């Protein structure tokens, strides 16, 4: 879906699909420089990271494997529930594996902090994080994130896998949702 089809649902487009793809290609090069001699397992967090994973893994020029986790963090609104629960666990045993978490967005950081501790308790050989978007002003916990696509203002964004009430995930661009959509 293109932003032009959304009427006034969006306040403005933040990043076009071309800008997103170009940045993921760059991140892919950085990641491959660090992992080319290791077997990296990409761990995606459903559902928001689906498109980031799809494009990032194709930007990596060698063999990688992937697995998925689903956790609950947000309800149907735009506020964190503060409760994290595993809805779907990994299929892979990650002990002694080099794990790279692939995320769509870090907002308060609470969800990812929880996931990080949970995965660390499984004794991976290494654990790093890649996120397409990060909101530095919204951070409630500091998370050491090695690969960041874009730092964005503290606004609610949709598109490129990110939803509002399960909608807009198929928007090609990333845009700021117009406040009248959720107020
Ligand atoms: P955090 O725990 O870092 O506050 O946020 C965790 C999850 O909330 C993210 O993985 C994402 O699913 C959702 N989230 C946070 N900020 C936004 C946003 O601006 N837009 C959308 N669509 N989801 C968000």
UniProtKB/TrEMBL annotation:
Q: Name one GO molecular function term.
A: hypoxanthine phosphoribosyltransferase activity
Keywords noted in UniProt: Cytoplasm, Glycosyltransferase, Magnesium, Metal-binding, Nucleotide-binding, Purine salvage, Transferase
GO biological process terms, semicolon-separated: GMP salvage; guanine salvage; hypoxanthine metabolic process; IMP salvage; purine ribonucleoside salvage
Q: Kindly report the protein's main subcellular placement as a broad class.
A: cytoplasm
Subcellular localization: Cytoplasm
> Which InterPro entries does the record match to this protein?
HGPRT, Hxn_phspho_trans, PRTase-like, PRTase_dom
Give the protein family: Belongs to the purine/pyrimidine phosphoribosyltransferase family.
> Which NCBIfam families does the annotation name?
HGPRTase (TIGR01203)
Protein name, UniProt field: Hypoxanthine phosphoribosyltransferase
Can you name the source organism?
Yimella lutea
